[in-house]
């Protein structure tokens, strides 16, 4: 269900720039309606329902692709005169929703959020398509597809929201659906994992709520366009608010040591759940840190940078070291996410344009690559019936294609230049070096060492899984890759390569908004 | 007059009521103790009429009347309840009223 | 002193409510058909709601000529809460219909007592002085003592005493707390000389402690109605022992009455410390104990204890928190009604709430009921899709932070996390496959037949919840 | 085709060929699919060679169209802050020569592999990976952007990983592959940081800007030392050389590719490319010099005691790369590049010839060879030329380039170069000493493999080592020269291996590389003496006790040399073990402490709930007491509050 | 000390004394009679305090009705007429809390009013109170009627299991 502007509120202020801002509503409405339709379809038409879900997801994805063409022809910032806001969304939609709570239905998209929106649309589409063929045991396929669409609403909404409270509302939307996906379709220990996930992340998001409300209470507005760039808050409030926001987003991202929900959730989640979780849900944390954390409390953010950087580096190192000791395929990939998000957070922690751009592209790359990894890991686990590395070996012998793809994904994930993962990691390090001083140099060096450790555990994984003699489990697995699997994986592979070769695909329009976000910082 | 005297009487009566409520096992005796508490309240209300510059003089007395009627209604219903309990359980001992017989059978 | 002119127009809700009660009695006397009595009562309830809306925020009446303080204060918040009382009454009545049809309680008396209770609620909503308030509260509560214990057994049916026990518990603790509240009122009067809410204010110098203690005792006594810790012990036992629809009424209408009364008091008297302590204790203890419940109604009871804590947290702010508290209460009662409604719908008529285990897989057998319960639980947890609940939490937290009570907001939110643990447990249980009994495939569950009145009540409540979820401003507009 | 098109296309063509090749279905698809894969690989390398030749034809041509200017910043791929990463090329003569060398070796390897892996079902990805490898190396060679260079640099690492691990039947192959990738990756940590420092300070990733930027000494030295870590990793310099001998687990053509013109040469080439910066930093040069000297000796000494044919060659590579870095250290990038080119030729030749031996003979071990000369004359002569060049036998190519290095080092000992004099001495001495050692082990290799009697049927009967992918020998056949597809590349490579040294007399080549005029002065006598001494002593030992390995003469040092001075163990102890222990510790802490705190919170909360719930399992009066007590306490609180 | 004070003291002593007996007596029935005494004394206090009507209502409603009701209940529940040992629970918590409440409230009042003299009120007449009730307090009065009606109906419906009893076919 999505909050749509009700007719009762047409009397409130209502502004929109040129272009088609209602596209943004459509982005939320299409999956929401799709979810409703899918959920209401009779249980006998389960497969048809999944097809409908895929169609809805495809429509949404197409809509995300249309966005750049719906931009006003005149670029907005020329129209604002001398007091241009720090963020100039391509599309901007503003309704008052609950004035009593300072909540406005304010959506917008700009270069920072757009790639994430597309990524969300893409991954949801792929996951929905994937469910047409393969429904994990546990529940009906249409319920799963509907939940995926609801998740999409929440995530896209989070990326589009330009109002703090609205951001929070969307941020919360994903919690229960994700819980349901894990608890409903997950592995044997799904209950505990799902509960841990939902409680831990709720603990994070209540901090977000507190932070958001603190900001709104002092600033008197939750509008990110107004809050960004101009420091409307006192230093103390900024510090409090940023601490709260940082903790909240650190749980979501997750940043060491607030990560322990992630491995359990990933290990137990069904394949599509893992993909969505790693691919887009984690991004809400890092995106939030950039958009909200930096946006509303630039001074505090700047001050917290070194601490955040330290934790980011610890996340990289510890995540990688822990990966060296993991014996479960999905668990290992989950921990690798901790390390990767550490690079993203390191980029953010520098609070420089380079760093944040590195974080943005790191986000996208991680979404693509880890999404692919989880697809593959899920497939291997499903087909061999085990995720234990000790029982997986010699995949190259029985399923060379699968092994090749796993190799590609793993190598992409370890940050090989030329593939998407490289830019985020390398430029996070560059940003840290650029931040200057022995402290940041040390962080940069440690992060780079973490990069080497990343290679170590991924190579360990590959060596274990693809090389060597085939185990009975592996020998028994079906090597063929179905059409729907190709459909789900191919875009990720192609994009991993494409973004790796041309990072401008992601970064082309990020400079201005990031500079806008950074403008508030001293 | 020294209003502190009836006030203190009210306070002591209320305390006795509390004591009685907590001490007594027989539901009817508990009800009696409650009556003591309510009367203490009434006494304080009536005394307050003497000691306070009220917006509406005499409100305390009115209030006390209302309380008396309330108490009567409560006693009526209360006795009906106690009698019903007695009819079913053949006891009027409040100790027998368990609040939570819930066995802990919570999964996970 | 002459009697003043009385504005009968603004008294319409009261007349309608009281009329409903009389109508129920008369209908029972003269028509003596269950359907007619129930129908008449339901219509009366709707009429009360309509009357409250029509009367709206008219002029005050029953004023003392001397000071201009009034006993009947029609405001929009009052009207909205009166509508809620009426709606809850009608809803609970609808939930009771199957049990009444079964003869689990005499229909006429049941309807009458319920209508009396509603009348009390309406009076509480509009009351402008402590006397009316307390009388109204008693009118709200007293019929419930009876309703909790009122149960008829068929010949040959094993008579259970849970209801009677619940009734005794409820009654005894209730009278004690009434006494405490009255003592508080008495002390307040002794200190300030006023019983009209508008006249309440700071006491003259030597009487300040008296006023403080009076206010505190008043709050403590009233807190009983919302089952605030440490005055909550009656609630789980009573809810569980009472017929489920009555438990629903207890945890919604009765609680709403308590909230209104508390709001009236705390917005005039300085009771921040006591209310804050109550709030912290209430939500924490309520949530922690709820973690370990294995019976459905008890779990809901403890959760509603905890929910009262959130309301109290807003009320600790005094006047600035009243809107948030009322808003929270409004959102809460709607969601709670849905939850109880689903419980009623899933259980046989007249049965108690049963063990949690009995709900295993219920969401698969009855998808709509499951969805409604999930909506309600999510709302109570403050998460989408229960947007109403989310806005409820948001309003409380917002109010607390606005007034620089961030620490209390933090406690509220920590509790929200704890609460989610048991809400998701119930929610997940609904969709857990039952242990295979025999060789019946898990997919072919027997369908659950929902009686029409219950369905209607649920549809109504869900509609309101969804509407409030998307347009909470309607409620906030109504409460300010 | 003009240079401005050819330049950018140069890395792209093999790269694309590789990508397309990877799309071919793996597994044995029969001859058709093999032909397709082979065609793709050969075409890619062939076109690259043509493009490289085209570029070489006129390396200094500049386009007037700024957008198509291959030497400008190129096509922007992405902008990070003020750093724009662009795809552009910077091709001067040295780059063009290296590109040609790369392309030639790659082409030879591709052609050779068709026959060498004739029955390998996983040939298609193999060929594609070779193409990718080539493309990556060409990117390093041609790119004018440090980040793009880094991309090529690391893609090579990944390709080497894939190719070294190619062999499915060798249990050590995966480990060797992982080791190769990891060790170079460790070096790359430094490389990445070094680049980060350089581009951060310069504010550009564009090589020209970076080279022109005026760095402070400290920054520069730090950055260059970091770069050197990467160079050490890729170019197998001490202490990061340990991966290279193990990498022999890969198919032999891959060894040729890695050792000759790609991977290991990349490090040297990058230093060459950034030499204007190194010139400013004596510290970095001195470090490089010491590193080079140690590597030269280490490699040479380790090569003396190896029994595995390929390992001898591998250690010789380590040593020879040391010559190149030594030349760089002593201030003669030209000599380094010259040696790089000649080394590319003769080392490729040697490996391909070794592949022919192994292909024919089914074992890597010298102790099982002997007397091959009669059966494999072409291979034998290829070996003779290759080993001669390796040892620096005039007039083969290696002689000239090594002579250049020695001359440069000798020059540095006289001062006047940026490098400290002592470093010049160190490099010169090591290089000189190593000439003798190299001659010794080259002679030993030749004698053990090709002369004497065959040891294939030892006392214990046939004992076949399956050392490469396609070996499916039931019993040893008579050794024979390889089939034409393997034969031709050998012949092709023999030419530069033998004659490239004379190119130093070709003015175009010389000026292009900025080589000094070749002068065969007295100084040449010393290495010649050492060479003769080395070769002679090896021959003498071999003659004295026939059938026994001359390495036996090393006595107790032999196992030490054979194990590469046990540096593997050192590395294991110092790096692998601590990292593993740390990982164990952190993983345990993650479960016990970090997650323990989380779960503990949950357990505590539930426990509290249980406690409180138990407290509520009481009778009504207790509840009443609780209510009244609570009211009393709260009342007192309120009283005190009001009174205060 | 005035006459009023003396009266207040005396009546107060009686009220408190008999109140104490109410909550301590081991005779159920005697407790009821002590309650009568205590309530009567309180009625006397009302008279002294000038609340005549309240005093009479007290006597009528409490002494006349409530106590009788309570005694009936004692009979109906077949409570022992003589002394019984099991009427009480352990005293300690009750005593502590009771003492706390008593001391607290006493201290509160003593602190608030000290030994201040207040003028004795005019003896209130029923008319004045009646005027108030039917003037300012009509509303609660009316509501009270609903309350009483519901109490009546409730008590009846609880006490008479035959009302709305289920027939066999209902089950």
Automatic annotation (TrEMBL), chain B:
InterPro entries: NADH_UbQ_OxRdtase_chain4L/K, NUOK/Mnh_C1-like. The keyword Ribosomal protein does not apply. It catalyses: a quinone + NADH + 5 H(+)(in) = a quinol + NAD(+) + 4 H(+)(out). Its EC number is 7.1.1.-. It is found in: Cell membrane; Membrane. Gene3D superfamilies: 1.10.287.3510. GO terms for biological process: ATP synthesis coupled electron transport. It is a multi-pass membrane protein. It holds the Pfam family Oxidored_q2. GO terms for cellular component: NADH dehydrogenase complex; plasma membrane. Keywords: Cell membrane, Membrane, NAD, Oxidoreductase, Quinone, Translocase, Transmembrane, Transmembrane helix, Transport. The keyword Cell inner membrane does not apply. The chain crosses the membrane at residues 6-22, 29-48, 60-83. GO terms for molecular function: NADH dehydrogenase (quinone) (non-electrogenic) activity; quinone binding. NDH-1 shuttles electrons from NADH, via FMN and iron-sulfur (Fe-S) centers, to quinones in the respiratory chain. The immediate electron acceptor for the enzyme in this species is believed to be a menaquinone. Couples the redox reaction to proton translocation (for every two electrons transferred, four hydrogen ions are translocated across the cytoplasmic membrane), and thus conserves the redox energy in a proton gradient. NDH-1 is composed of 14 different subunits. Subunits NuoA, H, J, K, L, M, N constitute the membrane sector of the complex. PANTHER family: NADH-UBIQUINONE OXIDOREDUCTASE CHAIN 4L, NADH-UBIQUINONE OXIDOREDUCTASE SUBUNIT ND4L. Belongs to the complex I subunit 4L family. This is NADH-quinone oxidoreductase subunit K.
UniProtKB/TrEMBL annotation, chain C:
The keyword NAD applies. InterPro entries: NADH-Q_OxRdtase_suN/2, ND/Mrp_TM. Residues 127-418 form the NADH:quinone oxidoreductase/Mrp antiporter transmembrane domain. It is a multi-pass membrane protein. It catalyses: a quinone + NADH + 5 H(+)(in) = a quinol + NAD(+) + 4 H(+)(out). GO terms for biological process: ATP synthesis coupled electron transport. GO terms for molecular function: NADH dehydrogenase (quinone) (non-electrogenic) activity; NADH dehydrogenase (ubiquinone) activity; quinone binding. One of its GO terms (cellular component) is endomembrane system. Its EC number is 7.1.1.-. It is found in: Cell membrane; Endomembrane system; Membrane. Belongs to the complex I subunit 2 family. HAMAP family: NDH1_NuoN_1. Its main location: membrane. Keywords: Cell membrane, Membrane, NAD, Quinone, Translocase, Transmembrane, Transmembrane helix, Transport. The keyword Translocase applies. NDH-1 shuttles electrons from NADH, via FMN and iron-sulfur (Fe-S) centers, to quinones in the respiratory chain. The immediate electron acceptor for the enzyme in this species is believed to be a menaquinone. Couples the redox reaction to proton translocation (for every two electrons transferred, four hydrogen ions are translocated across the cytoplasmic membrane), and thus conserves the redox energy in a proton gradient. NDH-1 is composed of 14 different subunits. Subunits NuoA, H, J, K, L, M, N constitute the membrane sector of the complex. This is NADH-quinone oxidoreductase subunit N. The chain crosses the membrane at residues 12-31, 38-58, 78-100, 107-124, 130-148, 168-190, 210-234, 246-266, 272-292, 299-317, 323-346, 366-387, 407-433, 454-476.
Automatic annotation (TrEMBL), chain D:
Residues 80-126 form the NADH-Ubiquinone oxidoreductase (complex I) chain 5 N-terminal domain. Keywords: Membrane, Oxidoreductase, Transmembrane, Transmembrane helix. The keyword Membrane applies. GO terms for biological process: ATP synthesis coupled electron transport; electron transport coupled proton transport. Its EC number is 1.6.5.-. GO terms for cellular component: endomembrane system; membrane. Pfam families: Proton_antipo_M, Proton_antipo_N. It is found in: Endomembrane system; Membrane. This is NADH-quinone oxidoreductase subunit L. It comes from Actinoplanes aureus.
From TrEMBL, chain E:
PANTHER family: NADH-UBIQUINONE OXIDOREDUCTASE CHAIN 6. It holds the Pfam family Oxidored_q3. It is found in: Cell membrane. This is NADH-quinone oxidoreductase subunit J. Belongs to the complex I subunit 6 family. GO terms for molecular function: NADH dehydrogenase (ubiquinone) activity; quinone binding. It catalyses: a quinone + NADH + 5 H(+)(in) = a quinol + NAD(+) + 4 H(+)(out). The chain crosses the membrane at residues 6-24, 31-49, 55-79, 91-113, 133-158. It is an enzyme of class 7 (translocase). It is a multi-pass membrane protein. The keyword NAD applies. Its main location: membrane. The keyword Cell membrane applies. GO terms for cellular component: plasma membrane. Gene3D superfamilies: NADH-ubiquinone/plastoquinone oxidoreductase chain 6, subunit NuoJ (1.20.120.1200). Keywords: Cell membrane, Membrane, NAD, Quinone, Transmembrane, Transmembrane helix. Its EC number is 7.1.1.-. It comes from the Bacteria. NDH-1 shuttles electrons from NADH, via FMN and iron-sulfur (Fe-S) centers, to quinones in the respiratory chain. Couples the redox reaction to proton translocation (for every two electrons transferred, four hydrogen ions are translocated across the cytoplasmic membrane), and thus conserves the redox energy in a proton gradient. It comes from Actinoplanes aureus.
């Amino acid at each position: 269900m999505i909050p749509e502007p009700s007719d009762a509120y047409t009397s409130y202020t209502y502004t929109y720039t040129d272009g088609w801002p209602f596209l943004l509503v459509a982005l939320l409405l299409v999956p929401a309606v799709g979810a409703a339709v899918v959920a209401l379809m009779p249980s006998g038409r389960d497969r048809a329902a999944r097809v409908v879900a895929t169609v809805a997801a495809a429509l949404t994805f197409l809509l995300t692709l249309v966005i750049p063409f719906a931009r006003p022809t005149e670029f907005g910032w020329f129209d604002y005169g001398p007091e241009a806001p720090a963020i100039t969304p391509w599309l901007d939609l503003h309704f008052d929703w609950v004035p009593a709570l300072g909540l406005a239905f304010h959506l917008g998209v700009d270069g920072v959020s757009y790639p994430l929106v597309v990524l969300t649309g893409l991954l949801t589409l792929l996951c929905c398509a994937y469910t047409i063929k393969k429904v994990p045991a546990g529940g009906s396929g249409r319920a799963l597809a509907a939940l995926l669409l609801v998740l999409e609403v929440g995530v896209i909404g989070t990326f589009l929201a330009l109002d703090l409270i609205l951001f929070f509302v969307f941020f919360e939307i994903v919690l229960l659906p994700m819980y349901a996906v894990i608890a409903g379709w997950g592995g044997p220990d799904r209950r505990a994992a799902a509960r841990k996930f939902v409680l831990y992340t709720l603990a994070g998001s209540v901090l977000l709520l507190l932070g958001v409300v603190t900001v709104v209470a002092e600033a008197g507005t939750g509008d990110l366009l107004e809050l960004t760039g101009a420091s409307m808050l006192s230093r103390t409030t900024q510090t409090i608010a940023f601490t709260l926001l940082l903790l909240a987003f650190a749980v979501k991202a997750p940043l060491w040591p607030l990560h322990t929900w992630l491995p359990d959730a990933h290990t137990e989640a069904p394949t599509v759940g893992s993909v969505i979780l790693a691919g887009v849900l984690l991004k809400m944390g890092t995106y939030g840190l950039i958009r909200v954390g930096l946006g509303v409390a630039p001074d505090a953010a700047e001050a917290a940078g070194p601490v955040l950087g330290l934790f980011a580096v610890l996340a990289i190192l510890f995540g990688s070291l822990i990966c060296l000791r993991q014996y479960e395929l999905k668990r290992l990939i989950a921990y690798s996410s901790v390390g990767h998000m550490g690079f993203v957070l390191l980029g953010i922690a520098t609070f420089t344009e380079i760093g944040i751009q590195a974080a943005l592209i790191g986000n996208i790359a991680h979404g693509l690559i880890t999404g692919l990894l989880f697809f593959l890991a899920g497939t291997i686990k499903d087909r061999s019936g085990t995720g234990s590395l000790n029982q997986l070996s010699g995949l190259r012998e029985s399923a060379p294609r699968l092994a090749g793809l796993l190799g590609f994904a793993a190598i992409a994930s370890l940050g090989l230049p030329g593939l998407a993962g490289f830019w985020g990691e390398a430029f996070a390090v560059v940003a840290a070096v650029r931040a200057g001083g022995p402290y940041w140099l040390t962080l940069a060096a440690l992060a780079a060492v973490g990069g080497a450790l990343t290679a170590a555990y991924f190579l360990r994984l590959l060596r274990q899984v693809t090389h060597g003699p085939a185990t009975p489990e592996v020998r028994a697995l079906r090597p063929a890759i179905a059409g729907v699997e190709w459909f789900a994986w191919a875009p990720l592979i192609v994009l991993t390569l494409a973004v790796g070769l041309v990072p401008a695909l992601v970064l082309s329009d990020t400079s201005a908004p990031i500079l806008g976000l950074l403008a508030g910082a001293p | 007059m020294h209003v502190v005297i009836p006030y203190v009487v009210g306070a002591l009566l209320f305390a006795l009521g509390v004591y009685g409520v907590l001490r007594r096992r027989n539901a009817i005796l508990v009800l009696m103790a409650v009556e003591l508490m309510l009367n203490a309240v009434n006494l304080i209300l009536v005394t307050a009429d003497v000691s306070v510059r009220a917006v509406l003089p005499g409100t305390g007395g009115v209030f006390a009347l209302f309380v008396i009627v309330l108490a009567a209604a409560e006693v009526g219903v209360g006795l009906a309840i106690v009698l019903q309990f007695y009819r079913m359980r053949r006891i009027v001992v409040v100790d027998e009223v368990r609040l939570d017989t819930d066995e802990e059978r919570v999964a996970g | 002193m002459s009697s003043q002119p009385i504005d009968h127009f603004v008294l319409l809700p009261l007349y309608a409510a009281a009329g409903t009660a009389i109508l129920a009695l008369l209908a029972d006397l003269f028509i003596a058909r269950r359907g007619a009595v129930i129908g008449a009562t339901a219509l009366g309830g709707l009429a009360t709601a309509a009357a409250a809306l029509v009367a709206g925020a008219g002029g005050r009446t029953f004023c003392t000529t001397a000071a201009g303080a009034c006993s009947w204060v029609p405001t929009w918040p009052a009207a909205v809460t009166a509508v809620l009382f009426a709606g809850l009454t009608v809803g609970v009545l609808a939930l009771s219909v199957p049990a009444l049809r079964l003869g689990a309680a005499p229909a006429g008396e049941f309807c009458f007592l319920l209508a009396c209770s509603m009348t009390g609620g309406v009076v509480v909503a509009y009351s402008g002085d402590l006397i009316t308030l307390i009388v109204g509260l008693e009118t709200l509560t007293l019929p419930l003592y009876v309703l909790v214990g009122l149960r008829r057994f068929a010949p040959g049916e094993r008579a259970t005493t849970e209801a009677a026990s619940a009734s005794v518990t409820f009654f005894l603790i209730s009278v004690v707390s009434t006494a405490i509240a009255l003592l508080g009122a008495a002390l307040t009067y002794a200190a300030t000389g006023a019983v009209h809410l508008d006249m309440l204010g700071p006491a003259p110098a030597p009487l300040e402690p008296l006023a403080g203690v009076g206010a505190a005792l008043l709050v403590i006594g009233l807190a009983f109605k919302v089952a605030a810790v440490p005055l909550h012990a009656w609630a789980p036992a009573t809810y569980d022992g009472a017929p489920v629809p009555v438990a629903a009424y207890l945890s919604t209408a009765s609680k709403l009455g308590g909230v209104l009364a508390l709001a009236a008091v705390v917005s005039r008297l300085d009771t921040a410390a006591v209310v804050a302590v109550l709030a912290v204790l209430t939500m924490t203890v309520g949530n922690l104990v709820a973690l370990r419940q294995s019976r459905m109604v008890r779990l809901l009871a403890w959760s509603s204890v905890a929910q009262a804590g959130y309301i109290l947290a807003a009320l600790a702010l005094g006047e600035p928190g009243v809107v948030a508290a009322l808003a929270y209460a409004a959102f809460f009662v709607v969601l709670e009604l849905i939850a109880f409604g689903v419980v009623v719908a899933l259980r046989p008529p007249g049965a108690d709430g049963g063990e949690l285990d009995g709900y295993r897989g219920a969401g698969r057998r009855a998808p709509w009921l499951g969805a409604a319960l999930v909506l309600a639980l999510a709302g109570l947890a403050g998460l989408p899709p229960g947007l109403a609940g989310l806005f409820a939490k948001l309003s409380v937290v917002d109010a607390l932070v606005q007034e620089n009570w961030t620490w209390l907001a933090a406690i509220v939110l920590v509790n929200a996390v704890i609460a989610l643990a048991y809400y998701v447990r119930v929610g997940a249980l609904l969709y857990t496959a039952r242990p295979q009994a025999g060789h019946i495939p898990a997919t072919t569950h027997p369908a659950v037949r929902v009686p029409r009145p219950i369905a209607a009540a649920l549809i109504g409540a869900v509609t309101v919840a969804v509407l409030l979820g998307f347009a909470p401003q309607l409620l906030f507009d109504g409460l300010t | 085709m003009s240079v401005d098109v050819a330049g950018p296309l140069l890395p792209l063509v093999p790269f694309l060929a590789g990508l397309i090749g990877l799309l071919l279905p793996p597994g044995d698809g029969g001859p058709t699919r093999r032909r397709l894969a082979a065609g793709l690989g050969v075409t890619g390398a062939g076109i690259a060679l043509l493009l490289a030749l085209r570029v070489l034809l006129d390396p200094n041509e500049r386009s007037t169209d700024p957008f198509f200017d291959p030497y400008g910043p190129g096509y922007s791929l992405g902008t990070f802050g003020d750093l724009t990463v662009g795809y552009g090329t910077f091709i001067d003569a040295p780059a063009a020569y290296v590109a040609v060398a790369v392309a030639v070796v790659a082409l030879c390897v591709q052609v050779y592999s068709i026959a060498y892996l004739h029955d390998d079902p996983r040939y298609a990805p193999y060929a594609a990976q070779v193409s990718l490898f080539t493309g990556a190396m060409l990117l390093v060679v041609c790119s004018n952007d440090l980040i793009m260079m880094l991309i090529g640099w690391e893609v090579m690492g990944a390709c080497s990983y894939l190719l070294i691990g190619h062999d499915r039947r060798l249990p050590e192959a995966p480990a060797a592959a992982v080791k190769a990738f990891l060790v170079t990756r460790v070096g790359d940590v430094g490389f990445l940081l070094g680049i980060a420092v350089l581009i951060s300070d310069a504010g550009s990733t564009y090589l020209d800007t970076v080279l022109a930027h005026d760095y402070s000494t400290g920054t520069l030295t730090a950055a260059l030392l970091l770069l050197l870590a990467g160079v050490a990793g890729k170019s197998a310099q001490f202490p990061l050389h340990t991966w290279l001998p193990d990498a022999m687990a890969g198919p032999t053509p891959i060894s040729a590719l890695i050792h000759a013109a790609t991977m290991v040469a990349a490090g040297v080439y990058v230093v060459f490319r950034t030499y204007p910066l190194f010139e400013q930093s004596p510290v970095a040069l001195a470090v490089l010099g010491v590193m080079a000297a140690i590597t030269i000796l280490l490699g040479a000494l380790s090569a003396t005691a190896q029994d595995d044919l390929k390992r001898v060659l591998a250690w010789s590579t380590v040593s020879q790369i040391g010559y190149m870095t030594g030349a760089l250290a002593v201030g003669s990038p030209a000599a380094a590049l010259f040696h790089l080119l000649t080394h590319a030729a003769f080392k490729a030749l040697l490996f391909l010839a070794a592949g022919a031996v192994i292909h024919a003979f089914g074992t890597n071990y010298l102790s099982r060879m002997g007397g091959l000369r009669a059966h494999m004359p072409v291979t034998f002569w290829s070996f003779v030329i290759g080993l001669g060049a390796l040892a620096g036998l005039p007039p083969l190519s290696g002689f000239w380039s090594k002579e250049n290095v020695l001359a440069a080092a000798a020059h540095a000992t006289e001062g006047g170069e940026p490098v400290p004099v002592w470093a010049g001495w160190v490099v010169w001495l090591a290089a000189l000493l190593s000439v003798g050692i190299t001659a010794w082990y080259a002679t030993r290799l030749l004698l053990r493999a090709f002369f004497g009697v065959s040891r294939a049927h030892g006392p214990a009967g046939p004992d076949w080592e399956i050392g490469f992918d396609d070996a499916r020998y039931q019993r040893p056949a008579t050794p024979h020269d390889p089939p034409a597809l393997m034969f031709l590349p050998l012949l092709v490579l023999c030419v530069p291996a033998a004659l490239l040294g004379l190119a130093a007399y070709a003015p175009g080549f010389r000026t292009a590389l900025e080589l000094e005029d070749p002068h065969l002065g007295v100084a040449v006598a010393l290495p010649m003496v050492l060479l003769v001494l080395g070769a002679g002593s090896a021959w003498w030992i071999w003659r004295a006790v026939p059938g026994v390995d001359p390495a036996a003469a090393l006595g107790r040092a032999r196992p030490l040399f054979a194990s590469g001075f046990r540096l593997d163990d050192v590395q294991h102890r110092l790096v692998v073990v601590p990292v593993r222990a740390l990982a164990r510790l952190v993983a345990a802490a993650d479960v016990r402490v970090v997650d323990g705190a989380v779960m503990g919170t949950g357990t505590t909360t539930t426990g509290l709930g249980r406690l409180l719930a138990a407290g509520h399992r009481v009778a009504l009066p207790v509840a009443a007491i609780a209510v009244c007590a609570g009211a009393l306490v709260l009342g007192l609180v309120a009283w005190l509050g009001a009174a205060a | 000390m005035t006459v009023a004070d003396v009266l207040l003291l005396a009546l107060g002593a009686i009220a408190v004394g008999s109140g104490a007996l109410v909550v301590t007596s081991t005779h159920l029935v005697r407790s009821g009679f002590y309650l009568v005494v205590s309530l009567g004394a309180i009625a006397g206090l009302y008279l002294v305090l000038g609340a005549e009507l309240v005093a009479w209502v007290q006597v009528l409603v409490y002494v006349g009705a409530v106590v009788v009701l309570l005694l009936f209940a004692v009979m109906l529940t077949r409570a022992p007429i003589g002394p019984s040992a099991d009427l009480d629970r352990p005293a300690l918590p009750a005593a502590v809390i009771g003492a706390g409440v008593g001391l607290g409230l006493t201290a509160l009042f003593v602190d608030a009013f000290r030994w201040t003299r207040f003028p004795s009120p005019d003896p209130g007449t029923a008319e004045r109170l009646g005027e108030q009730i039917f003037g300012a307090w009509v509303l609660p009065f009316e509501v009270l009627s609903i309350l009483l009606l519901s109490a009546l109906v409730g008590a009846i419906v609880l006490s008479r299991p035959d009302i709305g009893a289920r027939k066999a076919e209902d089950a």
